[in-house]
Write a structure and sequence with these properties.
Layout: E1 3-16, E2 19-25, H1 27-32, E3 38-41, E4 50-53, E5 56-58, E6 61-67, H2 71-77, E7 84-91, E8 103-107, H3 111-123, E9 130-134, E10 150-154, E11 161-162, H4 165-169, E12 177-180, H5 183-196, E13 200-203, E14 219-222, E15 225-228, E16 235-237, H6 238-241
Parallel strand pairs: 8-9, 8-12, 9-10, 10-11, 12-13
Antiparallel strand pairs: 1-2, 1-7, 2-6, 3-4, 3-7, 5-6, 13-16, 14-15
Bound molecules: flavin-adenine dinucleotide and FE2/S2 (inorganic) cluster.
């Protein structure tokens, strides 16, 4: 069940080009959230709330990675310590809990829910492999906020493996996949999952107005009919989508 809370910003750090890591005091959300779920954060009076994946939890805190792409994310990224902001969450379904040793793949800011997935898997004694792809080194999230066991690719080769996250995935042993990132990356990963004959779950993004199933703004067409990304997802098994 989601909670509508007035949260306090505990810290806000610059973590990569145009990207901020923000800690919020949000005990109800921190205690109930599962990886893949998201929150809707108020972006002031002028704008609708904006969706952000929960990137990790600790105690009563949630951590979000906010990449600035427009006015709403710019407002949220400029929140300062002790400012108060309304947050709704946790929302959506999250990744399944019963998958043995998934490979975690984050493309761009899609790394956010994968960090939470890695944190959760570690907490239950697993040691997940993680792949993180960015366009270039400027955008790589500071290592302070990334799990230790991570392989990084950049499209231009400015850091780590030269190529896409999907190229780097091809170098791994087949395993079930959890992924989040841009559409072309997810399509490439869906093909690899099909070749490997392994299941894959993707966390999708869509424009969202309400975040809880009412406005129909986030509806996508799937092989099982129309689905709302906010309540039927954001995590979908790949064969439903591609
Ligand atoms: C479930 C979910 C989880 C998300 N998690 C994160 C996260 O952890 N970190 C993060 O930085 N962002 C995340 N996003 C994306 C984030 O919500 C948008 O970047 C933000 O709402 C943009 O608001 P804005 O006012 O800054 O930009 P706008 O002015 O609304 O848009 C600026 C540009 O971004 C594009 N855009 C906006 N929203 C989306 C979207 N949802 N999908 C694709 N393109 C979009 C617009 O088409 C436009 O080109 C998530 C989105 C969803 C649906
Ligand atoms: S965002 Fe309103 S129904 Fe999904």
């Amino acid at each position: 069940m989601p909670f509508e809370i007035e949260s306090t910003v505990l810290d806000n750090r610059y973590v990569a080009k145009e990207t901020f890591g923000i800690y919020f005091y949000a005990p109800q959300i921190a205690h109930t959230a599962i990886p893949g779920q998201f929150v809707m954060v108020s972006a002031g009076e002028k704008f609708l709330r904006r969706p952000f994946s929960i990137a990790s939890v600790s105690g009563s805190k949630i951590f979000l990675l906010v990449r600035v792409v427009g006015e709403g994310s710019a407002i949220i990224s400029s929140l300062r310590r002790n400012e108060r902001v309304r947050i709704l969450g946790p929302l959506g379904n999250g990744f399944p809990n019963d998958v043995k040793s998934p490979l975690l793949i984050g493309g761009g800011i899609g790394i956010a829910p994968m960090i939470f997935a890695a944190q959760h898997l570690k907490s239950i004694g697993k040691n997940p492999k993680m792949i993180y792809g960015e366009q270039n080194s400027d955008k790589i999230i500071s290592e302070d906020f990334l799990p230790d066991e991570i392989e990084i690719s950049t499209d231009n080769g400015s850091f780590g493996f030269r190529g896409t996250a999907a190229d780097l995935l091809l170098q791994q042993n087949p395993a079930p996949i959890f992924a989040c990132g841009p559409e072309p990356m997810l399509k490439g990963i869906a093909k690899i999952a099909a070749q490997w004959n392994v299941p894959a779950w993707f966390s999708l993004e869509a424009r969202m107005a309400c975040g809880f199933g009412v406005c129909q703004g986030c509806v996508i067409k799937t092989k099982q009919g129309y689905k709302r990304v906010c309540t039927d997802g954001p995590v979908f098994q790949t064969e439903i989508i591609y």
